[in-house]
Amino acid sequence: MSSTSSNSIYGDAEVRRRRTLDAAISLLDEGGYSALTIRAVAKRAGTSTGLIYQYFVDKQDIFAALLSESQLEMADFVNSLPRDQGLTALLASMIPEFARHWARVGRLTTTWRDIEGMAGSERESMLELHASVAVYNAALIRALTEAAAAEGRSLLDDPALIHVVLSGLKGLADTIVNNIAKELSPEHLVNVSARALARAITA
Length: 203
Hints:
The protein has nine helices and no strands. With 203 residues, it is mostly helical. It has two domains: 56 residues, Arc Repressor Mutant, subunit A (Orthogonal Bundle), CATH 1.10.10; 143 residues.
């Protein structure tokens, strides 16, 4: 087989996998996790269930792949943010993007825990998911540390810090996505929250 043919086949496979994940995202948007079935994904993607099974064992695999992709995209985004404007500015830049990912799949993280119980933590897709979470968490801590240092501050030296930050980001994302604080503009909520979180995690 020529190199060109091989690349074409690989490219087609990546396109089909991408189409499958995009179809899954649209189903999650419309009906939540219960709407995510192999048959529904195949219909939405315009393909057969047999082709879906070439890339994913079941719907748990698809969902894990979406979560993993979201974590890696967030890690790339965090890595791209400037640190020289300080911790509050970093957090303010991060919150809207976190909310975007939360709206797409993050809001279903409780389902992720259910999936892990059903699928088993040794499943390849779950191992990849845990690895992507570790990549994101490391990128987040590194960015926060460097942004704090840029303004002469340091983060709290406590293993709970990453959980405090993630809990804060998730709560803010949920508030923004569901428009819970209707009396506030998103910009005001983001700015006040970024300042408060920056104070909470620095020594």
